[in-house]
């Protein structure tokens, strides 16, 4: 049996099969032993009959009036009572006269030469042996030489074992039927017993399955499933495991509640802080710009400082806006549902990216038919802006960035790919986490990175019932690198896309 097939078997099935096999094997062994024992008993009884017949012949009265007297010259063979039909007798007198016969119910016949040869070859020591006589089957035979008034006489007698073999064969057929019945009964009884015995484990497995299906990664989590208290109160091994499992679920629920409370506090703090920082940052940026544009001539270092204050305030404002967006998505992921044409959003976003990054090569592929989804147009625009901005900021000049939109099997697919240096493997698994930044080797932009752009992409995709994926291969000395971000969103109206035409 293959490992995969064995793995698919349930514990109940395995136990039932094993119990049935054990019962069947035990019944077969008992049947074999009983058949061998009966065969041995019947053979021993037949041997005793042969020896008794010889003893009776040797001890019978002698004289002219004696009954059953053996006389090699009387034309008959041995006439020994108590032997089964089909027995063979043989007598050889000192004068060389041979008398033999096969005893039948209707009389007797004379054995042929081949049948007599087996008896003539027997050792004449009075020990019973098993022989096979041609045309007659298996026999128990004995030969002995005795000396009497008529001289030396050799006698041999063989009794058939056919009756004994028939008894043993009938017994085996009966036992075979009993074995089949025993196996069927064992399978039925073991199924009921094992099912009842494993019912607590089934409840435990069902509880674990329900817990495994719960969304425990985020949000408020209430684990309201438990193993029945009656089962957990049992002192058996399963009862102790059930009690430990319930205790573990209590600890997990408490930990998840504490985590949720902490996350709620952090989100509320971020939302409040971001909201409170918007106005001060706008004031700082405004005063810096106003001072720099004043009529009075300012020193060069002052102008430089004001420019840095203005640029940093702008970067802080972008960070605050992104944090506010993430906070809103965390608190209320359900976005406003409007009909959004992804083709139009993509074309506008690529146009803006081309203006912001003229040193890159921008290509776009969209179908002739609209690709419609239900969602928030602003948030979808933010997805495209962040993906294209990420490609622009983290790839060198001359990189080709290709954006495509397609529809297939009820899903809209947005793909942003570049032939840049790729993403380090250590960063790929956490690239959609908040405040994840590329290393210094890939930071070619002067704008700085907040580490929230791709987190916003993932949050918006999730809020719209979709998902985002990333594929990347870092550049090597022999192979170029690439990065590919794929966003999948559910369609509202699926149109058959035609062959897209790339636009330079």
Structural write-up:
- The chain is 50% helix and 18% strand.
- With 504 residues, it is α+β, with helices and mostly antiparallel strands.
- The chain folds into 3 domains: 1-59 and 74-213, no CATH class; 260-329, Signal transduction histidine kinase, dimerisation/phosphotransfer (DHp) domain (Helix Hairpins), CATH 1.10.287; 335-493, Heat Shock Protein 90 (2-Layer Sandwich).
- Strand 1 (88-92) and strand 2 form a beta hairpin.
- Helix 7 (300-331) packs parallel to helix 11 and helix 8 packs parallel to helix 9 (377-393).
Largest sheet: 7 strands, mixed
Described by the principal axes of the CA atoms, the overall outline is rod-shaped
Number of domains: 3
Low-pLDDT regions:
1-8, 60-77, 440-446, 494-504
- How large is the share of residues in beta strands? 15-25%
Number of helical regions? 11
Structure class: alpha+beta
* H and E order: HHEEEHEEEHHHHEHEEHEEHHEE
Radius of gyration: 50 Å
- Roughly what percent helix? 40-55%
Report the count of strand segments.
13
The mean pLDDT is 78
Distance between the termini: 60 Å
């Amino acid at each position: 049996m293959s490992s995969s097939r064995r793995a698919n078997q349930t514990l109940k099935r395995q136990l039932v099969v094993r119990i049935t096999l054990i019962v069947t094997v035990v019944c077969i062994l008992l049947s074999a032993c009983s058949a061998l024992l009966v065969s041995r008993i019947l053979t021993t009884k037949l041997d005793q009959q042969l020896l008794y017949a010889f003893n009776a012949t040797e001890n019978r009265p002698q004289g002219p009036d004696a009954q059953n007297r053996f006389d090699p010259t009387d034309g008959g063979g041995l006439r020994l009572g108590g032997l089964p039909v089909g027995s063979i007798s043989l007598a050889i007198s000192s004068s060389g006269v041979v008398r033999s016969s096969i005893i039948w119910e209707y009389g007797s016949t004379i054995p042929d030469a081949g049948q007599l040869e087996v008896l003539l070859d027997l050792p004449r020591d009075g020990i019973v042996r098993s022989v096979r006589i041609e045309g007659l089957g298996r026999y128990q035979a004995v030969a002995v030489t005795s000396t009497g008034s008529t001289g030396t006489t050799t006698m041999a007698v063989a009794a058939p074992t056919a009756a004994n073999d028939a008894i043993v064969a009938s017994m085996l057929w009966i036992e075979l039927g009993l074995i089949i019945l025993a196996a069927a009964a064992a399978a039925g009884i073991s199924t009921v017993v094992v099912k009842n015995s494993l019912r607590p484990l089934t409840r435990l497995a069902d509880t674990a399955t329900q817990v495994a299906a719960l969304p425990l990664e985020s949000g408020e989590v209430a684990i309201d499933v438990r193993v029945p208290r009656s089962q957990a109160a049992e002192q058996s091994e399963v009862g102790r495991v059930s009690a430990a499992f319930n205790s573990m679920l209590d600890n997990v629920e408490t930990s998840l509640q504490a985590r949720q409370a902490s996350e709620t506090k952090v989100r509320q703090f971020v939302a409040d802080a971001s909201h409170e920082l918007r106005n001060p940052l706008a004031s700082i940026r405004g005063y810096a710009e106003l001072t720099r544009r004043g009529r009075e001539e300012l020193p060069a270092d002052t102008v430089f400082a004001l420019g840095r204050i203005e640029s940093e305030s702008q970067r802080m404002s972008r960070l605050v806006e992104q944090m506010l967006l993430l906070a809103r998505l965390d608190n209320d992921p359900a976005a406003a549902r409007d009909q959004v044409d992804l083709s139009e959003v993509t074309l506008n976003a690529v146009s803006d990216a081309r203006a912001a990054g003229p040193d890159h090569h921008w290509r776009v592929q969209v179908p002739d038919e609209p690709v419609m989804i239900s969602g928030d147009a602003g948030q979808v625009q933010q997805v495209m802006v962040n993906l294209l901005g990420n490609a622009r900021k983290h790839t060198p000049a001359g990189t080709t960035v290709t954006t495509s939109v397609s529809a297939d099997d009820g899903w809209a697919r947005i793909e942003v790919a570049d032939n840049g240096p790729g993403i380090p493997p250590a960063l790929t698994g956490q690239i959609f986490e908040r405040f994840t930044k590329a290393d210094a080797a890939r930071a070619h932009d002067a704008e700085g990175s907040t580490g929230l752009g791709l987190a916003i992409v993932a949050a918006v995709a999730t809020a719209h019932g979709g998902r985002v994926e990333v594929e990347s291969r870092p550049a090597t000395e022999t192979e170029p690198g690439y990065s590919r971000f794929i966003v999948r969103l559910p369609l509202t109206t699926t149109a058959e896309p035609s062959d897209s035409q790339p636009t330079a």
